[in-house]
Amino acid sequence: RKEVEQDPGPFNVPEGATVAFNCTYSNSASQSFFWYRQDCRKEPKLLMSVYSSGNEDGRFTAQLNRASQYISLLIRDSKLSDSATYLCVVTPGWGGKLIFGQGTELSVKP
Amino acid sequence: DAGITQSPRHKVTETGTPVTLRCHQTENHRYMYWYRQDPGHGLRLIHYSYGVKDTDKGEVSDGYSVSRSKTEDFLLTLESATSSQTSVYFCAISAADRGHYNEQFFGPGTRLTVL
């Protein structure tokens, strides 16, 4: 079983749609959680950190459920520019390694 | 954007030749990482460094070595390249030692093809 699992997609949605990505992780001792975004043939970039209380940044909302070892990302009012691969990332501790999911590909169509 | 550069950006080499990839940062961050990214596997950690001359293995370290003689440079060496090492290689740095838990910033990547 992979340490971090995501639905690879692709998710094909129209502009303006709401789309949700899910991610599960296997290590219950994991401490930090992130969503990264990766555009085609580019480097990954941090989209947002994920906190137990949930957090929102504009059209993006991230949730963490430690009991279920589950992370989600919700994108509202999708834009063409949201087309990318979204990577779920987990870390077991401070200053250490990041464990990446395979990524979920999103394609937003006009 | 974080000051991270990688060189070369593209390289084609032959099986059995040595290859060195360079990662250079201008952020003075303590932690540096090398990943490879392959279809179906996502990003996997090869080696990382937590200070000058301090390095450790990641999950796919076989066939790779690293060196860090200066804070700003982290070198990845393939002693004898194989076709299975054809991949996109990303370097990353972390401000984890400055209160930002595990947030990593990535370089632009190096596309390596081993024929």
Keywords:
A: 110 residues; mainly beta; five-stranded antiparallel sheet; B: 115 residues; 11 strands
List low-pLDDT spans of chain B. Answer: none
Strand content range of chain A: over 45%
Largest chain interface and its two residue counts?
Answer: A-B, 20 and 25 residues
In percent terms, what proportion of residues of chain B is strand?
over 45%
In terms of quaternary structure, the protein is heterodimer
Q: Which stretches of chain A are poorly predicted, pLDDT < 50 over at least 5 residues?
A: none
Kindly state the number of beta strands of chain A.
11
The overall pLDDT average of chain A reads: 91
Structural class of chain A: mainly beta
User: Kindly, what is the distance between the CA atoms of the first and last residues of chain A, rounded to a whole number of angstroms?
Assistant: 37 Å
As a whole number of angstroms, the C-alpha radius of gyration of chain A is 13 Å
- Could you describe the largest sheet of chain B, including whether it forms a barrel? 7 strands, mixed
What is the string of SSEs of chain B from the N terminus onward? EEEEEEEEEEE
Structural class computed from helices and strand pairing of chain B = mainly beta
Write the H/E string of chain A, N to C: EEEEEEEEEEE
| Strand element count of chain B | 11
Helix content of chain B: under 10%
Q: From the alpha-carbon coordinates, what is the Rg of chain B to the nearest angstrom?
A: 13 Å
Broad shape of chain A: globular
H/I helix tally of chain B: 0
Secondary structure blueprint with pairings:
The complex is a heterodimer of chains A (110) and B (115).
Chain A: E1 4-6, E2 11-14, E3 19-25, E4 32-38, E5 44-49, E6 55-57, E7 60-65, E8 70-75, E9 84-91, E10 99-100, E11 104-109
Parallel strand pairs in A: 2-11
Antiparallel strand pairs in A: 1-3, 3-8, 4-5, 4-9, 6-7, 7-8, 9-10, 9-11
Chain B: E1 4-7, E2 10-13, E3 19-25, E4 31-38, E5 42-51, E6 54-57, E7 64-70, E8 73-78, E9 87-94, E10 104-106, E11 110-114
Parallel strand pairs in B: 2-11
Antiparallel strand pairs in B: 1-3, 3-8, 4-5, 4-9, 5-6, 7-8, 9-10, 9-11
